[in-house]
């Protein structure tokens, strides 16, 4: 296989200040256990993030303030440089586009309202998934959801740019990525299109990476997977609370094997994927309102029982958890049902519920079924002949169908 092209020793626009910030970011990832030695580490140390993201948004409003307020930081402005470099290397997600705007040639300015429509994901998530991809020189790689171009740049660094295709549905995103990847000396195929439905050129691919959440595994991506190939993508529902990571592999004999692993963090939803959320008013209602309280000897499932929460999300879609609450707090925004659980003694919990949906009963129902299935955190994914998809526990005792539509779930 050909060797992957390396970056110049000092790419134009890189500085010792930025290199030191990258090194500190990589060290934090190593300390947290998100990053180990190997080519991904070398890529993250080498790739100048400020060339891929010379502008980025920073939120100036409180989390629940409406309309939200942002400033666009620009590397070329001395007053912005320190804050931008800190933002780019914080490890947090970085927003680069507001309301589908053109990215190239923007004049930095404050903005209000709207939503962020393109970003670079958190570095711990990106580093972990890149390591799981096991990219190697000569691999043909399809990167679906270009964003800031970080994954595409890492793939070019590790595999060589001739076999890399990066694709995004937004032409402004692809135009910016094409220019900025070129500034790093990389020229992958940078394409505008919907990689979940229509892109079939240049395959098959050894590795496929989807950088946004999908409801089900796009069949076209499975078809493009080469023997020995692997694809990774976040599978989710309308709730952002309990993601799953789909790992699809095509064996050398052509057979496809896939599994769904419950994970703590996943990618955000892509275009056309409605997301439920708990508004500030609804969170306050759940915290302060009176409901029906019962004393229960049954413990709520632990946060680490991720397979149970993943199953709950698919079997009873429409629930959202408030992870910032002190007690276990879950709401159903579509019907305004909610539940909070508070420990009040040894093996005693006060469960307060409100609304037409008995969320506590559903949690206990799924928890019992999950334990009977062997308490798995990894499920098999099946692609049936009629096009449907389902997840099952290893012993077959717990199963559910994956949704195939692109709208929000409603109970």
UniProtKB/TrEMBL annotation:
Keywords: Cytoplasm, Methyltransferase, S-adenosyl-L-methionine, Transferase. It comes from the Bacteria. It is found in: Cytoplasm. Pfam families: PCMT. Its main location: cytoplasm. GO terms for cellular component: cytoplasm. Residues 389-405 have a biased composition (Polar residues). GO terms for biological process: methylation. Residues 388-411 are annotated as: Disordered. Coiled coil: none annotated. One of its GO terms (molecular function) is protein-L-isoaspartate (D-aspartate) O-methyltransferase activity. InterPro entries: PCMT, SAM-dependent_MTases_sf. The keyword Ubl conjugation does not apply. Its EC number is 2.1.1.77. Belongs to the methyltransferase superfamily. L-isoaspartyl/D-aspartyl protein methyltransferase family. This is Protein-L-isoaspartate O-methyltransferase.
């Amino acid at each position: 296989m050909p060797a992957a092209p390396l970056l110049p020793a000092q790419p134009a626009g890189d500085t010792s200040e930025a290199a030191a910030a990258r090194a500190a970011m990589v060290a934090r990832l190593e300390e947290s256990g998100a990053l180990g030695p190997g080519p991904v580490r070398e890529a993250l140390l080498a790739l100048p993030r400020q060339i891929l993201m010379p502008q980025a948004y920073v939120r100036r409003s409180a989390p629940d303030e409406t309309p939200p307020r942002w400033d666009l930081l620009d590397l070329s402005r001395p007053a912005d440089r320190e804050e931008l470099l800190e933002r780019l290397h914080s490890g947090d997600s970085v927003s680069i586009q507001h309301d589908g705007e053109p990215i190239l040639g923007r004049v930095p300015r404050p903005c209000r309202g709207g939503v962020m429509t393109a970003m670079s994901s958190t570095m711990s998530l990106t580093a972990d998934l890149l390591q799981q991809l096991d990219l190697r020189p000569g691999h043909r790689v399809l990167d679906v959801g270009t964003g800031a171009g970080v994954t595409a740049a890492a793939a070019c660094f590790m595999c060589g740019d001739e076999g890399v295709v990066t694709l995004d549905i937004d032409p402004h995103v692809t135009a910016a990525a094409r220019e900025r990847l070129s500034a790093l000396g990389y020229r992958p195929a940078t394409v505008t299109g919907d990689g979940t439905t229509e892109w079939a050129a240049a395959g098959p691919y050894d590795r496929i990476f989807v950088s946004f959440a999908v409801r089900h595994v796009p069949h076209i991506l499975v078809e493009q997977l080469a023997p020995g190939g692997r694809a990774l993508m976040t599978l989710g529902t309308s709730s952002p609370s309990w993601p799953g990571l789909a790992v699809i592999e095509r064996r050398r004999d052509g057979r496809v094997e896939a599994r769904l692993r419950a994970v703590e963090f996943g990618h955000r939803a892509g275009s056309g994927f409605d997301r439920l959320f708990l508004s500030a008013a609804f969170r306050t209602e759940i915290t302060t309102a009176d409901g029906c309280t019962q004393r229960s000897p049954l413990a709520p499932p632990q946060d680490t029982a991720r397979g149970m929460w993943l199953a709950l999300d698919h079997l009873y879609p429409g629930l959202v958890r408030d992870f910032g609450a002190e007690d276990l707090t879950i709401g159903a925004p579509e019907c305004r049902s909610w539940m909070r659980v508070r420990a009040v003694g040894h093996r005693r919990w006060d469960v307060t519920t409100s609304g037409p949906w008995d969320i506590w009963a559903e949690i206990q129902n799924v928890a019992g079924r999950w334990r009977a299935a062997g308490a798995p955190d990894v499920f098999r994914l099946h692609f049936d002949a009629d096009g449907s998809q389902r997840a099952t526990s290893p012993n077959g005792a717990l199963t559910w169908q994956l949704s195939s539509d692109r709208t929000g779930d409603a109970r």
